[in-house]
Design a protein that fits this description.
By secondary structure, the chain is of the alpha+beta class. It is built from three helices and five strands; from the N terminus they run βββββααα. Bound molecules: zinc ion (ZN).
Length: about 120
């Protein structure tokens, strides 16, 4: 009996990180959109327009910047500033650092109150 073939959960759309090119669920990635010639973080996924998805970590951001992945993913005409995303990632790192010091065993960001409802597909 095989357990493979049912690993793709339908309620969890996957996106590819523009930095490391690894696929991950949307919840693990930061949505980034273009606004006024710059990349802006859209952690709630509410801003209109094309979105690029990135692990909110410095390594992936660096990779994405070096590859001009944002420009490509967002179909921008010129170079995009990433200061806002940079700041967001740094902030995330500080928070992650604080939480790992707090509970070094559990790296699972299971936030209370944000449990994912697994049933049904979201209407677009
Ligand atoms: Zn990544």
């Amino acid at each position: 009996m095989s357990v493979s073939g049912r690993t793709r959960a339908r309620g969890c759309p996957e996106r590819t990180c523009v930095g490391c090119r690894v696929r991950a669920t949307k919840g693990d990635l930061l949505r980034v959109v273009e606004a006024g010639g710059a990349c802006v973080p859209d952690p709630r996924g509410t801003l209109p327009g094309r979105g690029a998805y990135l692990h909110p970590v410095k390594a992936c951001l660096d990779l994405a910047v070096r590859r001009r992945a944002f420009v490509r993913a967002l179909r921008a005409r010129g170079p995009l500033g990433t200061a806002d995303v940079d700041r967001f990632v740094e902030q995330q790192a500080v928070e992650a650092d604080m939480s790992t010091q707090h509970t070094s065993a559990a790296r699972n960001p299971a936030l209370p109150g944000t449990s994912r409802v697994g049933s049904g597909s979201r209407l677009r």
